[in-house]
Amino acid sequence: MPTNISINGTIPKFQDLGLAYCNLLEFPYFLHEQDEWNSLELSGNKIHGQIPKWVWEMSKESLQLLTLSGNFLTGFDQPVSPMTNLGVLDLGNNNLQGSIPIPPPSIIYYNVSSNSLTGKFTPLLCNPSYLAYLDLSSNNLSGVLPQCLVNLCVTLEILDLHNNNFVGSVPQLCKKGSQLRMIDFSQNLFQPRSLVNCGKVETVNMGNNQLNDTFPFWLGKLQMLSILMLQGNQFHGAIDERRGNLEFPKLHIIDVSFNRFSGDLPFHQFQNWIAMKVVNASNLSFLQANVEFKNAAHSPFTYSVTITSKATKRDYEKIQDFLVVIDFSSNSFEGCTPHNIGNLKALGQLNLSNNALSCHIPPSFGNLSNLESLDLSRNNLSGEMPTELVQLTFLGFFNVSHNNLT
């Protein structure tokens, strides 16, 4: 849609304007004469090139929301200028290059994901006093995270840094009273560090890093934790239940696949996972953080995760509250499969494949009435197939190949 056409007459002063998904090829010329904006939405167009200087100068004192995501923007005519009340700035899914643009101190929601940004996590990002949502994922950022991040996490609720090249130890993120709800540091080169003070955290995704340690027992203190992703690291040793209190009463999803864990499966932990025992298929809500952004119409932030389901990786952009998953595959667990897994009646997916488990398949698995996927392949299981498994009427994927079953 051409936007440089001449218009006769006086253009009214807009306060709120939505031009998202209108096939715009450039910034409409009339915008730079506006100075009373509250919100301007230009996401999902085909705007190329740099963000012009006047974007940051228009309505400096009134603009509260600016969305430019899903275009082909490459950079800035000048750095982001201080804007007194800008609370929401969405620059995600563009072609932005260079270092991370620094938002104004008033920012609450800041998204620059899925660009081509490089450089480090600058300490200048620790300055905003109200930041609740920060998404730097899927860029080419590197280096270590600054220690000042702990100050940012006083207000921060969503922190997404996945799919970058960050290295080193994760700094202490939380003080007492932290509001942090979701942490996604997956697909980086991090080493572990405690999140023990992040008492409100519901999602921790540290998958596909270089974490080389024993099981992080301090996670047991995160009583709100629903999703724990530790897959694709170098965790090792036994999950020794004597070393920590790992109750996880609200845990819905745990993935520790493709590590080097060994020893017996954690019998007593399966007994403690209370949320996995209650089938609530009537609950059609999603796991989400109800983060509120002042003067913005953003919907609640729904958690997302990638899970190997039915031997295929699947991206869950939204996670229904009744989705319950255990994936302990591709480790070196041994011994008998705990019978009390059969008490986790809400379990929808169970993957224990590619370990060294022995003994028989517990008949109690027949109690898993909600089970859709069961993978016990590539172990040392023996004995007869329990007839109780015929009760699993929802089972759509069943793999017990490469065992010693009769």
List the helices and strands and how they pair.
Blueprint: E1 16-18, E2 39-41, E3 48-51, H1 53-57, E4 65-67, E5 72-76, E6 88-90, E7 97-98, E8 109-111, E9 116-119, E10 133-135, E11 140-143, H2 149-152, E12 158-160, E13 165-169, E14 182-184, E15 189-191, E16 203-205, E17 227-229, E18 236-238, E19 253-255, E20 260-264, H3 267-272, E21 288-289, E22 301-302, E23 305-309, E24 312-316, E25 325-327, E26 332-336, E27 349-351, E28 356-358, E29 373-375, E30 382-383, E31 397-399, E32 404-405
Parallel strand pairs: 1-2, 2-4, 3-5, 4-6, 6-8, 7-9, 8-10, 9-11, 10-12, 11-13, 12-14, 13-15, 14-16, 16-17, 17-19, 18-20, 19-25, 20-26, 25-27, 26-28, 27-29, 29-31, 30-32
Antiparallel strand pairs: 21-22, 23-24
Provide structural commentary.
With 406 residues, the chain is mostly beta strands. The protein has helices at residues 53-57, 149-152, 267-272, and strands at 16-18, 39-41, 48-51, 65-67, 72-76, 88-90, 97-98, 109-111, 116-119, 133-135, 140-143, 158-160, 165-169, 182-184, 189-191, 203-205, 227-229, 236-238, 253-255, 260-264, 288-289, 301-302, 305-309, 312-316, 325-327, 332-336, 349-351, 356-358, 373-375, 382-383, 397-399, 404-405. The chain has a 15-stranded parallel sheet with strand order 1-2-4-6-8-10-12-14-16-17-19-25-27-29-31, with no helix packed on it. A five-stranded parallel sheet has the order 7-9-11-13-15, with no helix packed on it. Strand 23 and strand 24 (312-316) form a beta hairpin. The termini are far apart.
